[in-house]
Amino acid sequence: MSLNTLINVDKKDNLLVIIPEGDMDIYSSTRFKELVLDSYNKEKKDLLIDGKKLEYIDSTGLGALIGILKQVKEDNKKIYLSNIKPNIRKLFDITELDKLFIIRSENDE
C-alpha cells in the first residue's frame, strides 16, 4: 500500500498537522520526509503527526521521522505523535524512540 499525506495548519493550537495514510516504508518514507519538511520550512510550527490512518511503519519510516525531528529541534520546535496504533507504538517503545517524540494519548487534548 502507498502512503498519502495530508498536511493542514491548525490555527487554534498553532500546529502543523500531518496525517499520513497507509504504509510508511522504503517506498514512501523519503517522499513523506520531503513533503513534511517542505511544509515545515514554510510554517516553522510545532508538528502534530496524527497516526489514525497510518497502518505500518518500517525502519526507513522511523528514519524519516528522526530526520524530521532533527530539523524541528534545530528551531526549538516539537513533534507530537497522536492516535498511534498499538503495533506502531510498540516499535517506538522497543527502539526507545518514545523518549525522543512526545506521544499523546487519546485522552490528551
UniProtKB/TrEMBL annotation:
One of its GO terms (molecular function) is anti-sigma factor antagonist activity. CDD domains: STAS_anti-anti-sigma_factors. It holds the Pfam family STAS. Residues 5-109 form the STAS domain. InterPro entries: Anti-sigma_ant, STAS_dom, STAS_dom_sf. It comes from the Bacteria. SUPFAM superfamilies: SpoIIaa-like. Belongs to the anti-sigma-factor antagonist family. PANTHER family: ANTI-SIGMA FACTOR ANTAGONIST TM_1081-RELATED-RELATED. This is Anti-sigma factor antagonist. It comes from Paratissierella segnis.
